[in-house]
Write a structure and sequence with these properties.
Largest sheet: none
Helix content: 55-70%
Strand content: under 5%
Order of helices and strands: HHHHHHH
Number of helices: 7
Oligomer: single chain
């Protein structure tokens, strides 16, 4: 068993780079981890979340309860004070609005555009039906079939 321990120690000292200071035979060398620690990104909170946390903290009667909420959520007191200032300034209520591109058209405009599309489709069907009627009239004239118009049948 001591032979295997000596073999392990020899392999660790043999694997060290030539320029590095070699440790004594009995010591193991810890190599630095090749993994790179990712940078921590700043967390972003929604306005709803901020307001709920602020209301929870405002309801607390003791500082220990407030600290328990902060620990549970992983927040710092400085963040809470910033949120309070922005809430008092009215900024958090303004954050509830949807972000992004504003809608150019309101409900009336969308309804109008839908009706215009429907009108165009109906005009296309009407022109197609008129073309079919014209073809039927021409075919009936060629074959000598008399076509009764709807006006004559009404009388």
């Amino acid at each position: 068993m001591s032979e295997s321990l000596q073999n392990d120690q020899e392999t660790t000292t043999k694997n060290t780079p030539a320029g590095a200071s070699s440790a004594s035979k009995g010591e193991l060398i810890d190599a630095p981890s090749p993994e790179v620690n990712p940078k921590r990104r700043n967390r972003r909170y929604r306005a709803e979340y901020k307001l709920t946390i602020l209301s929870e903290i405002d309801c607390c009667s003791s500082s220990s309860e407030r600290g328990a909420i902060l620990r549970r959520e992983g927040l710092y007191a400085s963040i809470i004070s910033e949120w309070r200032k922005s809430r008092d300034a009215g900024a958090l209520s303004a954050l509830n609005k949807l972000r992004g591109r504003k809608n150019k058209y309101d409900a009336k405009d969308t309804k109008i555009s839908a009706l215009e599309k429907e009108l165009a489709a109906l005009k296309g069907k009407l022109s197609q039906a008129e073309a079919i009627l014209d073809v039927q009239k021409k075919v009936s004239e060629i074959f000598g079939i008399s076509v009764q118009s709807s006006k004559k049948t009404e009388d």
